[in-house]
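Why does residue order matter? Because the sequence determines the fold. Keep that principle in mind as you read this record.
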Amino acid sequence: MTERRFQTVAIVGVGLIGASFGLALRRAGFRGRILGVSSPAATEEGLRRGAIDEAKPLAEAAQQADLLLLAQPICRILDTLGSLDAWLQPHCLVTDAGSTKLRIVERARRSIQRAQFLGGHPMAGKEKRGAAEAEADLFAGRTWILTPSDPGELQTAAARELLDWIRAMGAVPLIMSPEEHDRVVAFTSHLPQLLSTALAVTLSEQLQAPEHLRAGGPGLRDMTRLAASPFDIWRDIVATNQEPIRVALALCLETLKRLQSLLGTDGLATAFERAAAFARSIRDENTPPARRLTT
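Structure:
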């Protein structure tokens, strides 16, 4: 690890991600102070779990922080960025855990002048929320995307130390531009959520008798797991990434129509084979993804 500079970390938003970040830092060996900025109930739970050492108002936490993580919902991150700069120390690194990046990075570029901002997105989470659900190993084995506006932003001492801590927590850093991030996660994260939601809505409308639900197996539970996610989180995601999500949905609709046209033909077997190959590629990084389905 590079020479450690972070002595005080501030977590703004002591929920599932924020509290898990505090727990993961401790497990990785961080010995400094961890401050929490959140509602009284959230900081109380964060203190009980050992994710934070002390609850502070935003201004006081920002003034003391060497590293400041914004782990709020996206629209609240945008609001916080608008008022944060006056309190920051020049050596502080501000990062975030928002699920979309372009709007956040653009707001930070306009608003953060006294310190460095480096956008981030840990690809980890659960359907349940809050510090009570936090886990020290939530990020272990998961991708942690960083979205610098310029590659040079990764070369500062603070950015290198953040990368060191991300790796120490067991996460795997991935570098993308904010634009590429939003386009890619529209397919890898936002589309799966909307497909799970669509499936659950369809089933809720078509399966009225309680015994019908017992006709489903583990696959149905797997496919509808994401449908349990709270809308107040997804409201901000959809609102800040509408166009890439529209593109992903349109392409998926085209694929569903092609599958419909393949029913009763040998082409359906080919579609299954290609889908299976891609599913294996998700589980084995050395397997090339399947080609696009065609009729």
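The CA atoms of residues 75 and 216 lie 37 Å apart.
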